[in-house]
Amino acid sequence: MATMHVDEIKALAQHAHSDAAVCDALFEALWGDNCEDAVHSAWALTHLPKSDNDTFDAHRDALVSLAVTTPNTSLRRLTLALLERLEWTAPDNETDDGADSESRAYTGVCPYVQLLNFSLEHLMMPEEPYGVRTLCMKLAYTLSLPYPELLAELRQSLLLIEPSELGSGIRHTRKKILEKIN
Q: What span, in angstroms and rounded, lies between the C-alpha atoms of 38 and 26?
């Protein structure tokens, strides 16, 4: 796939919105061998209307896995943007229902502990682009919201970031999240 322009991406997103097979092809391309195709597909998916968020929800676990493992910064940012669009609520069946201790140890308190840990780690990394760090802040906040102890950890992490070393967008996001936590 050659370099695509935003008008082509928007047209592809509009086509995917009206054709489930095209939408499925975009999701398949995310995990394909061609990184450029994966980035273009993720970019097109970010242009789908919010009414298509249920489509992302069906791929939630795979998107989390892709976001935390991809070495490509653009694909990571776009995948995090897709995840940020989703609802993240604590599951109703979070009580101890007899699940084995290994599965409880993996999920811990938060059902998406892998994404939460990734977000908490990467929001602190100065080498990450501001877009990735901002999305990590937003996701960490959303995932921590039902859990006061995780919100306290996020607050401490955000307080460790020196605002003077940040761009205005990430500084604003940090400030807004700290206000919400307080």
A: 8
Residues in the chain: 182
pTM value is: 0.85
- Are 148 and 138 in contact by the 8 Å Cβ rule? The answer is no
CA distance 16 to 52: 10
Rounded distance between C-alpha atoms, residue 10 and residue 55, angstroms:
17
**Class of residue 102 by CB neighbours under 10 A (exposed 0-12, middle 13-18, buried 19+):** exposed
Q: What is the DSSP secondary-structure string of 150-169?
A: HHHHHHHHHHHS-GGGS-HH
Residue 77 and residue 46: Cα distance in Å, rounded? Answer: 11
Tell me: pLDDT of 101 over 70: no
pLDDT of residue 91: 54
Cα dihedral sign, 94-52-86-68? positive
Structure tokens, 39:
């980035």
